[in-house]
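Cross-check.
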Amino acid sequence: MRRSDDDTAGPNGAGRPAGAARAAGAARPDGTGRHGAWGVIAVVLLIGVHLVRGGTEEISAEGPPQPLAAAAPDGARAAAVGLPASVPDPLPPSTPVGVRVPAVRIDAPVTEVGLDADGWIEAPPPEDDRLAGWFSGAVTPGERGTAVVVGHVDTPDGRAVFYDLGAVGKGHRVEIARRDGRTAVFTVYGVEVVPKDAFPAERVYGDAGAPELRLITCGGTFTEANGYEGNVVVSARLTEVR
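Predicted model, tokenized:
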């Protein structure tokens, strides 16, 4: 399943760059910018919207891996799924430069992405399908709060950076290399597919009271008319700093 160059109809049919994500009502309740609480933010990723046959890389007819029913619990319940009772102290801000998920062989550089003039989260540059994007409107990975890293699932030429994200499981580790030389290591406690038209923004992005991370790409049912109908969301909590 691959994304065509002319991707994407938004919720009302308006064209949007592939990989864009909508952030509506993103004002922080405490007025503190990206370090404030997320509040209720409606986000719809539009990554991998059209099926394109051909290309240079073989892809399974079933499309990218999809997670089993392993929904993320609320942050307060995360400890019940095998996370340590205590977590490292939050880190100071530092831009992420790389993301690794050794269990599924994801290893990619990270660039900064923001919002465009229409309030859509910009996708990583389409010419580099192995690049992930950290949303700069959120905290940096390792800070207290919820950091967000997005990536394409596929392209017209084949698999992209987060093609195997749906194969991540509870207990897997996500390593974020930071510009300050530290590596923030997160342990996965939830993997799920959520519908784009009913995205649980408060649960996904809400401040869990500890440093958390979300990795997001497209997933779920795919149709040529509507593309992917859901998002794969990986939820993880900081458990180590190296």
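Residues 1-33, 35-60 have pLDDT under 50 and may be disordered. The first helix runs from residue 201 to 205. Passed to J.P. for a second look.
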